Amino acid sequence: MNLQTLNIVKTASVAALIALTIACGYSSKATTPPVAGNTPTITILNPNSATAGDAAFTLTVTGTNFGTKAYVNWNGTAQTANTTYVSATEVTVAVPATAIATSGSVTVTVTNPGTPGGPYGGGTLAETSPPMTFTIN
């Protein structure tokens, strides 16, 4: 076999390998979409009300399915730094006096953040509880 024939055979072999690699989907990784996470529920807010202008306080939220990284949402704003996980049925949140300065209603929810998947996807979606109302008199 001469050198020119050998180069043609090498080129044809490399082209065949590239075609097989692409045809087999080797260049693309299958991904799995995230699945639903555990949805928390709220059964009790303690206290469930405050007087406008009161001092800061700690709100205890009792319910079910609270994950270890669960956080309270106060009127739609995530309180990630102020929330403390106590158990799967209890979290607490530090509520500053500025949050209860004026009367009205506040929506309280709890969110279990999603969990990341591996290199091919997976994991869980973030899930948020149905809302409960906190009253500021």
What's this, in brief?
The model has no long low-confidence stretch (mean pLDDT about 90). The protein contains 1 helix and 10 strands, in the order αββββββββββ.
Write structural notes for this entry:
This protein has 137 residues and is α+β, with helices and mostly antiparallel strands. It has 2 domains: 1-30; 41-136, Immunoglobulin-like, CATH 2.60.40. Helices cover 15% and strands 36% of the residues. It contains 1 helix and 10 strands. Strands 2, 4, 5, 8, 9 and 10 form a 6-stranded mixed sheet that branches. Strands 1-3-7-6 form a 4-stranded antiparallel sheet, with no helix packed on it. A hairpin with a 2-residue loop joins strand 6 (83-87) and strand 7. The radius of gyration is 27 Å and the shape is rod-shaped.
Question: What is the fold's blueprint, element by element?
Answer:
Layout: H1 3-23, E1 41-46, E2 49-50, E3 57-64, E4 71-74, E5 77-78, E6 83-87, E7 90-95, E8 104-112, E9 127-128, E10 132-136
Parallel strand pairs: 2-10
Antiparallel strand pairs: 1-3, 3-7, 4-5, 4-8, 6-7, 8-9, 8-10
